[in-house]
Amino acid sequence: MSNRYRCAIVGVSGGRARGHAEAFAHMPRGELTAVSTRTAENLRRFADQWDVPHAYTDYTEMFREQDLDLVLVNTPPDVRLEVLEAADLNGVGSVIVEKPLALQGEDWQALTQFAEQSRLKVAINHQLHYQPRRLALQKLVRRGGIGTIRRLDASARMNMAYQGTHVLQAVHAFQPSPPVAVSTSLLRGATGLEPNPRMHLAPDECEAEIRFADGSTARFRCGTNAPADNPEDTRISHHKQVAVTGETGSVQWTMTRWETRQGDRHHHGTHDYHEEDIMGQANMCEAMFDWLEDDTAVHALNLDAALRDFRLMLAMYMSGLSGRPESLEVPPMPDLLTEMRSRLT
């Protein structure tokens, strides 16, 4: 008989929390037992809607009182670390944190130190990785279905903090070779760097080329300079894509369609993003339950992998400011947000 895991959500005022709650219908091993958010009215409404027995306005109190195996965190990125520290201190088994993981180099250093000292199992909420269609395409490429990878093209029309981290993670999902350097050809616009309630701070546009250890490269575009997958769809969040070209074929995934070419075989189709996404959320949590049961079953979206992608994002910013390629071995520049706000305005 499989374990039944006690789960909670921190931050229930936005749409992502509703997606988490809906996904529990597809988790054989997970049950939503507690929720926490600062606004009492939102907390009461969410707990009633999803029949959650325990509700708190203080997540630390929830961590202390509930024996939690998994916590899903939907806070702004500037408080991620304090939530992780509280979860670690109060015996939470694992945490899945909403993207972006953080915003600049000081965050990267603090989270790297946390990862080295903590035994808390942490993953980042890049649920697209676990959507059924994405999983199938990733497995096809990783098993050599299109031969040796030569080139990737990945993009999102929202800025780096909103959607770019999804795309960076997608690049890693298809490409196992580690990135070694990045050259940014476009870093423009400071509107997205202005403080806002969600604190998703990033330049408006970015374009870069990533070089990997195996010699392959990836073109990365993020912001309003990125292509629209479906020009008739005006929802800016619905335009993300990744295409992978290998020696013997190619694959492409977007929010609404997919395509594979293997020699003379060509397959393509469409998918319903909402249905894919709910299953992606559920699969992501089930993968965490696997990790809780077996320390060797490390979650694909684990904190170490996320810190590598975060480091790549910082290198893109640094390259855009310096006008030269940046190695991932170079320490992150301090106070990058302030520097970009000054230089890109």
What secondary-structure arrangement, pairings included, does this model have?
Layout: E1 5-10, H1 15-23, E2 30-36, H2 40-49, E3 54-56, H3 59-65, E4 70-73, H4 80-89, E5 94-97, H5 105-117, E6 121-124, H6 132-142, E7 149-156, H7 160-174, E8 179-188, E9 205-212, E10 217-223, E11 240-246, E12 249-254, E13 257-262, E14 265-270, H8 273-293, H9 303-322, E15 326-327, H10 336-344
Parallel strand pairs: 1-2, 1-4, 2-3, 4-5, 5-6, 7-10
Antiparallel strand pairs: 7-11, 8-9, 8-15, 9-10, 11-12, 12-13, 13-14
Helix pairs in contact: 1-8, 5-9, 7-9
List keywords for this structure.
nine-stranded mixed β-sheet; 345 residues; alpha/beta; Rossmann fold; Dihydrodipicolinate Reductase, domain 2; 36% helix
- CATH-wise, what's the superfamily of the largest domain? Dihydrodipicolinate Reductase, domain 2
User: How much of the polypeptide forms β-strand, as a percent range?
Assistant: 25-35%
Q: What is the molecular shape?
A: globular
Q: Structural class, from helix and strand content?
A: alpha/beta
Distance between the termini: 58 Å
CATH architecture field of the largest domain: 2-Layer Sandwich
Which range best describes the helical content: under 10%, 10-25%, 25-40%, 40-55%, 55-70% or over 70%?
25-40%
* Secondary-structure element pattern, one letter each: EHEHEHEHEHEHEHEEEEEEEHHEH
How would you characterize the largest beta sheet?
9 strands, mixed
Topology, number of strands = 15
Poorly predicted spans: none
What is the CATH class name of the largest domain? Alpha Beta
The overall pLDDT, averaged over residues, is 94
- Helical run tally: 10
CATH topology of the largest domain: Dihydrodipicolinate Reductase, domain 2
Oligomer: single chain
Strand numbers in spatial order across the main sheet: 14-13-12-11-7-10-9-8-15
How many separate structural domains?
A: 2
Radius of gyration: 20 Å
